[in-house]
Write a structure and sequence with these properties.
heterodimer, A: Nucleotidyltransferase, domain 5, Nucleotidyltransferase, domain 5, six-stranded mixed beta sheet, B: Rossmann fold, 2 domains, 15 helices
């Protein structure tokens, strides 16, 4: 349990929106035995991930909140991913920067869009049968069609407004005083599904939710109404491009069963399961591209 | 010479004011490319197209319905802000409701000595469209004669045709050069060439294009052409947007825009009765979607352009709320995709959200790229 989470649990007034940061090292791999160590760094609007791969296998990653400075967030993320491994930047053969801050990753070999990286990462995470990837990020939402190699065939992004994205969920967690990690499960505990809030615009939805609370709705019901509105909005986006099987979800909202279960029900398609952290898909795709870039360069020599 | 187009584009108002001072002639601002410039040239009047400036503004809200397109709003703003105060007259040829609203509102708030609404027919595919248009053009000619107090003869009309045709022919030659593997000019430069021809005296413009042609024969754009793209949509003179696309190892090599080929590609067949010929040209030109019905004739040309200019993908940029174009997009997208071309669709407002468009454009270009990272 992280410090933030514990503070919330113990009622010590931490901020409810602060989702849990994490890092991980693969205990079964030794990077020193590998040939190509590559990295992907996904500097998103809300979160930053660094993934280190050894010969195309997941070796280590970190997942943390993005600060106000993109290069610094990238540096912090890679340092945290390196923690305890003995790795330094010098050991990386190639790095791909992706995400909103993709051009601000100081040690990157190349910048590639998060659209390409999420498709590639989802292909690795969920296998080659994935044809539709839904990335639900902090400030935008992307529906991507890809082939068996994880190459993008078509994509669609939400326009102009961050409604129905991670940041909106954070605002709601704060408003209701429910830790963001618990929002999904809580929203599913309602006996009867309430109608969705009429707007997913964060500002309008927030005032609507305040009104519902005043009317005597409990938190669970308000969360259910918001998660359901978010699921609706995402289904709208997905239907514009069409959902081809298999279907997989990446990004932070993939961890929110309140949205995912409602989404699956509306689409009548069960998303593929994974035991990996869905937030690292973009950085993972980046690390795989970085490896391919390095091998391509070697071949040319 | 090619820099001249950008200079004219940037200093459109100074050019027109200077022209007036030099010639003592009248300048007529127009709102749509269905205006028969040949007749305006025959009258010795300089036609200039009124375009927006792509800046945020706060003057049009009381005058234009909220769900009309950003372009018509931007155009009207130019008038309300006094940027076209040198115009002696304004006119429109019927195309869409939104830009007509900009025209009528302009007419209401900014009085000028000449204002003309030309009812260009929508059903250009009707066999009665040419005689109808001809009759309307005759009425327009008479009104111009009254305004300038000068008779317009058939010879004047023929000269008008020659002037406009000459510029068209020159620009088409420049477009031909864009078929090369390594193009000699960027899409932005080509756009500025075409749009500046809507803002300057075509005799002078054609001369500069002719000189530029010589210069272009040995020119490069200083980088590889990269991914060859085609740009489709209504009017697009969004410098920032085109510049952004062309900063990503891609070049726009062909277009279907009324600030591009739709404006100038089709010539008037000079020879017979000049008014018949002019009317036939505007009826048969590559149509704007407001008139491309029931058959969608534009698609055939888009496809042949895509093939001849060897484009890898097309970007459709859409003015928000432009219903005529919106209706066409599914059909155009399908035709392009059936021909094996990828399509990126973006919706424009007065100002471009460059960051948001950039990520989409980059991802689109990655999609078009080779498979070597897989």
């Amino acid at each position: 349990m992280t410090e933030d989470y514990r503070m919330v649990k113990e009622g010590k007034g931490a901020e409810y929106w602060r989702w849990t940061e994490s890092r991980w090292t693969n205990p079964d791999l030794d990077w020193k035995q590998g040939e190509v160590v590559s990295a992907g760094v996904d500097v998103g609007s809300v979160s930053t991930q660094a993934v280190v791969m050894v010969d195309g296998k997941l070796y280590a990653y970190s997942n943390m909140r993005t600060g106000s400075d993109s290069p610094e967030s990238a540096n912090k993320a890679i340092e945290w991913a390196f923690e305890g491994t003995g790795l330094t930047l010098d050991n990386l053969k190639a790095t791909v920067g992706t995400g909103y801050g993709r051009v601000n990753v100081p040690f990157a070999t190349k910048a590639i869009t998060e659209i390409a990286c999420h498709a590639r990462g989802a292909n690795f995470m969920y296998g080659p049968t994935v044809r539709t990837v839904l990335d639900m990020g902090g400030q935008d939402c992307k529906a991507i069609h890809c082939d068996e190699k994880g190459k993008v065939k078509a994509f669609l992004m939400n326009d102009k407004c961050a409604a129905g994205t991670g940041r909106g969920m954070e605002v709601f967690a704060d408003l209701l005083g429910v830790h963001i990690n618990d929002v999904g499960e809580m929203s599913l505990s309602v006996e009867e599904e309430p109608p969705p809030v009429s707007s997913t615009c964060v500002v309008f939805a927030k005032s609507e939710a305040s009104g519902l609370l005043r009317e005597g709705w409990d938190k669970e019901k308000v969360l259910a109404a918001y998660c359901s509105a978010m699921a609706h909005r995402i289904v709208d986006l997905l239907e514009r491009i069409g959902v081809e099987k298999e279907f997989a979800i990446t990004g932070g909202i993939a961890k929110n069963p309140g949205v995912v279960k409602r989404l699956a029900k509306e689409l009548n398609i069960e998303p593929l399961p994974t035991d990996m952290d869905t937030q690292i898909a973009g950085a993972m795709g980046g690390a795989l591209f970085a490896r391919a870039l390095y091998l391509k360069k070697m071949k040319k020599k | 010479m090619i820099e001249m187009f950008k200079e004219w584009y940037d200093a459109r108002h100074e050019y027109a004011k200077e022209w007036k001072k030099k010639t003592g002639g009248k300048v007529l601002g127009y709102f749509c490319t269905y205006v028969p410039e040949e007749i305006v040239y025959a009258a010795g009047v300089l036609p200039v197209r009124i375009l927006g400036s792509h800046e945020p503004q706060n003057v049009t809200e009381p005058h234009i319905f909220a769900m009309f397109c950003p372009f018509c709003r931007d155009v009207l703003a130019q008038g309300l802000q006094g940027r076209y105060d040198y115009l002696d007259g304004i006119m429109i040829a019927q195309s869409c409701l939104h830009v007509r609203q900009a025209y009528t509102s302009w007419d209401l708030h900014i009085p000028s000595e000449f204002s003309y609404y030309l009812p260009m027919p929508h059903h250009v595919q009707s066999k009665r469209a040419v005689p109808f248009t001809r009759a309307e053009f005759e009425i327009f000619k008479t009104r111009l004669e009254e305004w300038t107090a000068k008779k317009i003869t058939d010879d004047d009309l023929r000269r008008g045709i020659e002037t406009v045709n000459r510029d068209r022919q020159m620009m088409k030659q420049v477009y031909e050069l864009r078929k090369a593997d390594e193009v000699p000019l960027t899409g932005l430069e080509a756009m500025q060439m075409v749009v500046s021809s809507q803002m300057t005296d075509k005799t002078e413009h054609a001369r500069v294009v002719e000189d530029a042609l010589k210069e272009l024969k040995g020119r490069t754009i200083g980088r590889p052409t990269g991914t060859r793209l085609m740009l489709l949509g209504s009017e697009n003179d969004d410098v920032e947007f085109i510049g952004m696309v062309e900063s990503l190892d891609a070049t726009i090599v062909q277009d279907d825009h009324c600030t591009g080929t739709r404006y100038f590609w089709d010539e008037v067949e000079n020879g017979g009765d000049p008014m018949d010929a002019i009317a036939a040209r505007y009826v048969k030109r590559t149509p704007c979607p407001t008139k491309d019905w029931p058959e969608r004739k534009r698609i055939g040309r888009i496809l042949s352009f895509a093939k001849e200019w060897d484009v890898a993908g097309a970007i459709i940029i859409q003015q928000k709320f432009c219903d005529p174009h919106e209706i066409d997009i599914p059909a155009i997208r399908k035709a392009l995709e059936d021909a094996g071309l990828k399509v990126l669709f973006l919706e424009l407002d007065v100002t471009v959200p460059v960051g948001q468009f950039k990520i989409r454009t980059e991802a689109f270009l990655e999609m078009l790229a080779e498979d070597d990272l897989f």
